[in-house]
Amino acid sequence: MGKKELKEMSFLDHLEELRWLLVRSTIAVLIMAFATYFISDYLFDTIIFGPTRPSFYTYRLFCDLSHQLNFGESICIEELPFIIQNTEMEGQVNMFVWMCILAGFILAFPYILWQIWQFISPALYEKEKKNARAFIFVSSLLFFMGVLFGYFIVIPMSVNFVATFTVSEMVKNQFTLDSYMGMVKTSIIASGLFFELPIIIYFLTRLGLVTPTFLREYRRYAVVLVLIIAAIVTPPDVVSQTIVAIPMLIIFEISVIISAIVYKNLQRKNGKLS
């Protein structure tokens, strides 16, 4: 293996590169997770448990919106009648570690994207390789927008819905720490990754796995799916469901436009070759 000037790597070489990608990404996540340890009080008391308080920013914003739309106090949150309790011996320790890792993953996400770009760049054209900064910036921006959407929209609405929904006044809501943290993790990561849809569609279109025609044909199903998700995570009122659904539909439409542009460019290149 003295000559490393081969343009094409073997399958084992690709696996080795992938292994180091995972190693470097994991180290970055752990470093950022360790850094969050020093602000753990703020991370848990203010950020993670913020949506459990009626004074949370989103609840106050919705209340102001309710007044402006002449809905009165219909979507104002005066109280959230539930408590969060730990029922396992090591529950709080485990949650502390995993939420720090989650925060570390979010903070290290741009670096992870850079590692992914380094892995896939050999398969790209020279002109495309120069777009590394744009790829990192746009992908990171979309991910952080998704995280904020999950935190400020999805989580508060989910908390409000499950806290106020009851089958009987005899039943009091006492949520476990694990269930609440699970909802927080799922909402944030799922929203962040969903906002990466335009980037995913870009690469899938380049690989020929997705076409704009396919996306347009299944648009109606995507709309129905988005409305179902919005109905699940929000209280049963049109305003809340609309607030959740509109950004998700915009992301999907942006993905369709990106797919159309990429597909047209590929068709133009193929036309020149033929």
Automatic annotation (TrEMBL):
<comment type="similarity">
    <text>Belongs to the TatC family.</text>
</comment>
<feature type="transmembrane region" description="Helical">
    <location>
        <begin position="95"/>
        <end position="114"/>
    </location>
</feature>
<keyword id="KW-0811">Translocation</keyword>
<feature type="transmembrane region" description="Helical">
    <location>
        <begin position="135"/>
        <end position="168"/>
    </location>
</feature>
<comment type="function">
    <text>Part of the twin-arginine translocation (Tat) system that transports large folded proteins containing a characteristic twin-arginine motif in their signal peptide across membranes.</text>
</comment>
<keyword id="KW-0812">Transmembrane</keyword>
<keyword id="KW-0472">Membrane</keyword>
<dbReference type="GO" id="GO:0065002">
    <property type="term" value="P:intracellular protein transmembrane transport"/>
</dbReference>
<comment type="subunit">
    <text>Forms a complex with TatA.</text>
</comment>
<dbReference type="GO" id="GO:0043953">
    <property type="term" value="P:protein transport by the Tat complex"/>
</dbReference>
<keyword id="KW-0813">Transport</keyword>
<feature type="transmembrane region" description="Helical">
    <location>
        <begin position="188"/>
        <end position="209"/>
    </location>
</feature>
<dbReference type="GO" id="GO:0033281">
    <property type="term" value="C:TAT protein transport complex"/>
</dbReference>
<feature type="transmembrane region" description="Helical">
    <location>
        <begin position="21"/>
        <end position="39"/>
    </location>
</feature>
<dbReference type="Pfam" id="PF00902">
    <property type="entry name" value="TatC"/>
</dbReference>
<keyword id="KW-0653">Protein transport</keyword>
<feature type="transmembrane region" description="Helical">
    <location>
        <begin position="244"/>
        <end position="263"/>
    </location>
</feature>
<keyword id="KW-1133">Transmembrane helix</keyword>
<keyword id="KW-1003">Cell membrane</keyword>
<dbReference type="GO" id="GO:0009977">
    <property type="term" value="F:proton motive force dependent protein transmembrane transporter activity"/>
</dbReference>
<protein>
    <recommendedName>
        <fullName>Sec-independent protein translocase protein TatC</fullName>
    </recommendedName>
</protein>
<feature type="transmembrane region" description="Helical">
    <location>
        <begin position="221"/>
        <end position="238"/>
    </location>
</feature>
<dbReference type="InterPro" id="IPR002033">
    <property type="entry name" value="TatC"/>
</dbReference>
